[in-house]
Backbone:
């Protein structure tokens, strides 16, 4: 501190000014934070009383998303192909609110319009569409058939397009509505030995981003949610080609390890938030965000790294294109070490063959 009286006076003024600046900055930051909070609340789309259509809603991530929408006070229509799974889902979810079921195969061109019409006839126009339905095929590209690509594109891309065409006219006329398409980190970064899945999920990302830009002017928001590895208990439903037991081992293990994966409830809550706030795209979990960032900055480097990782995956088996389900592809290790985790997640999310857990 200066020794002179004048110096001490200047020092004191400087300290006061610094303190005042700090207080002012803190107050300004608090005001900005408060303003942002108020603005964000004003942008929130209220789900209570809204009609929500969830495709793939009978089990897995769709079931988890339907449950979260119900907890927000929405009425939820479930769409899936399996009548038994739908009946069980309605029985389990009915305790949370109003639920109805519509059985349909959305890879059929006319199914989307019929489903939307059935929901509208009972509850009025669809306010929120959550397209969660998905299929997964794993194995080397040499083992994949054209039908694998057709099924993946039909479920992930064409069904999403047809559903959007069915719900958007009424959403635009009412100047509000939400579409939430569920893609994957595999729709941002192509994953080896999952080519039909990744190609179709990339297509879904492109469709969602394009629609988001075009319909925003009408008060409608389109979001694309890209989860990272998620514990849904769905591994037994995948189609496996090539060296089935080895292929299923890497897939089931990576999708069940807690450190690498997120819970279905976390993903479901992100889906609901996307419906509430309408971001164009959301990538979930820190590993997912880092993978997407790395791919955006250095796609060739990431492709090279994935090429190295691909060398660790099972070799193709020549021209063989035989298929099994995941449930038929366990080996000794995965049966003992991985299946209990799959069953645990499956019981919570209405996976067929697993006794339901209490909610």
Residues:
């Amino acid at each position: 501190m200066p020794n002179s009286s004048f110096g001490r006076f200047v020092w004191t003024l400087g300290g006061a000014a610094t303190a005042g600046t700090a207080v002012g900055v803190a107050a300004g930051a608090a005001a900005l934070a408060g303003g942002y909070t108020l603005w964000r609340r004003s942008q929130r789309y209220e789900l209570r009383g809204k009609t929500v259509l969830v495709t793939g809603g009978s089990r897995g991530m769709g079931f988890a998303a339907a449950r979260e929408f119900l907890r927000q006070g929405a009425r939820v229509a479930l769409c899936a192909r399996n009548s038994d799974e739908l009946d069980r889902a309605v029985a389990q979810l009915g305790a949370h609110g109003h639920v109805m079921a519509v059985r349909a195969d959305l890879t059929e061109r006319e199914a989307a319009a019929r489903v939307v019409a059935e929901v509208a006839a009972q509850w009025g126009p669809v306010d929120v569409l959550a397209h969660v339905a998905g299929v997964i095929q794993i194995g080397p590209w040499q083992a994949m058939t054209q039908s694998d690509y057709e099924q993946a594109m039909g479920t992930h891309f064409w069904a999403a397009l047809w559903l959007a065409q069915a719900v958007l006219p009424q959403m635009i006329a009412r100047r509000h509505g939400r579409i939430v398409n569920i893609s994957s980190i595999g729709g941002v970064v192509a994953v080896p030995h999952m080519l039909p899945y990744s190609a179709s999920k990339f297509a879904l990302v492109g469709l969602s981003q394009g629609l988001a830009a075009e319909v925003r002017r009408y008060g409608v928001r389109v979001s694309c949610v890209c989860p990272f590895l998620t514990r849904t208990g769905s591994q037994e439903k995948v189609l496996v080609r090539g060296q089935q037991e080895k292929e299923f081992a890497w897939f089931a293990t990576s999708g069940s390890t807690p450190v690498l994966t997120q819970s279905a409830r976390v993903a479901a809550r992100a889906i609901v938030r996307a419906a509430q706030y309408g971001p164009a795209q959301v990538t979930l979990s820190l590993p997912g965000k880092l993978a997407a960032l790395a791919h955006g900055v250095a796609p060739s480097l990431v492709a090279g790294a994935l090429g190295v990782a691909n060398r660790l995956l099972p070799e193709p088996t020549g021209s063989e294109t035989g298929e099994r389900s995941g449930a038929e592809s366990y080996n000794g290790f995965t049966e003992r070490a991985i299946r209990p985790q799959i069953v645990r997640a499956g019981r919570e999310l209405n996976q067929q063959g697993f006794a339901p857990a209490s909610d």
User: Anything to note?
Assistant: The two ends are 66 Å apart (CA to CA). Confidence is low (pLDDT under 50) at residues 355-359.
